[in-house]
TrEMBL record:
The modification N6-carboxylysine is found at residue 177. Signal peptide: none annotated. The active site is at 151 (proton acceptor), 269 (proton acceptor). The record marks 310 as: Transition state stabilizer. GO terms for molecular function: magnesium ion binding; oxidoreductase activity; ribulose-bisphosphate carboxylase activity. This is Ribulose bisphosphate carboxylase. Because the Archaea possessing a type III RuBisCO are all anaerobic, it is most likely that only the carboxylase activity of RuBisCO, and not the competitive oxygenase activity (by which RuBP reacts with O(2) to form one molecule of 3-phosphoglycerate and one molecule of 2-phosphoglycolate), is biologically relevant in these strains. The gene is rbcL. It comes from the Archaea. Belongs to the RuBisCO large chain family. Type III subfamily.
Amino acid sequence: MPGITYEDFLDLEYDPADSDLVCAFRVEPAADMSMEAAASRVASESSNGTWAELQVEGSVTDLSATAFAIDGDEIRVAYPEELFEPGSMAQVLSCIAGNIMGMKAVERIRLLDCEWPEPLATSFPGPGFGTSVRTEIFDAPNRPITATVPKPKVGLSTEQHAGVGYDAWVGGIDLLKDDENLTDQSFNPFHDRLTESLDARDRAEEETGERKSYLVNVTADANTMLERADAVAAAGGEYVMVDVITTGWAAVQTVRERCAELGLAIHAHRAMHAAFDRVPSHGVSMRVLAQIARLCGADQLHTGTADLGKLENEDTVGINEWLYADLYGLNDVLPTASGGLHPGLVPELIERCGTNICVQAGGGVHGHPDGTAAGAKALRQSIDATVEGIPLEEYAEDYPELAVAIEKWGTE
Ligand SMILES: O=C(O)[C@@](O)(COP(=O)(O)O)[C@H](O)[C@H](O)COP(=O)(O)O
Ligand SMILES: [Mg+2]
């Protein structure tokens, strides 16, 4: 009896079942390989096949993926539901972004997009809040929420950190955010930073009458992140910040479960994402990383500045649309635009991305010639002006902080 071979994983007549996970890949076959041959190997090695002919019994082939479409350098592969462990992103990725990334049968391969079927998608919790943070945590139904990262990224003492937070909050910023490499170092220990920053937050709320919050970075091993999440809830915080790529999705899922119990929202930073998504011919696209972040429970996610800032971005607007779109009733995600932003860029950012976003500016606030408080005011003024439809230069006639920012950084 003939066994199963790579060729059994290619069927261009196959019509995916509703419960199949469908993945799109960009594939550059190896020099001596046709696209059909490469496609069959992608489907095989990412499901239950291998290079040797296999004698198999019974329904084993029911778990086999099928490469069912080839369009130029793109292929589409359908994965049967039974292949996956419901609710385990690590297991799903071990299939669709596992060994195939290193196969000699392809020169390059990139996981571009996924169509998540309802059974698999709803086996994940999704976000606890999503864009509803704007009204559940803040009073910002009609404007972007704002955030600032104290700069320099690390090195401030706890007292200095809380002081910068206070100035920024009183200046009109909604969220203080830790930088990605600030966790629990001796110059600014986690627990001290948490309590002193939230004390400053409380004073700023009293002073401004506005609700404020803090994206405290809990990133560490899973057990430590749980301890830190408990501390955040006990101290009266509303958010934890997790670097979702460096910690890994399994740890994110563990933190999501704890945050559900504690009623905390998750801000997802994405340091190291570019190692996966920057080279267009290879890796895992930011679109797919964003999909994974939503399924695993990120309420806010960095998705870029629509090419306005200092960092390379992949399709910010398209990714944001997917994060807003209905997904079997799972909550949406609030996109965070960050990286090289300053008040002068806000009108164009909102033109491209709308107001249902979080705008983060670190250097664009703390680099203001008149300091953090003035920088915070300038950012808030640019948001208010843009939401009211008033040109920045005109608004700046009455708001000197904004005028100074525009003079310093311009509006492009
Ligand atoms: O360290 C930084 O560079 C930032 O704090 C921005 O600082 P500035 O506001 O001073 O630029 C953020 O980590 C990046 O925006 C992350 O990139 P992305 O949002 O693309 O994931
Ligand atoms: Mg940073």
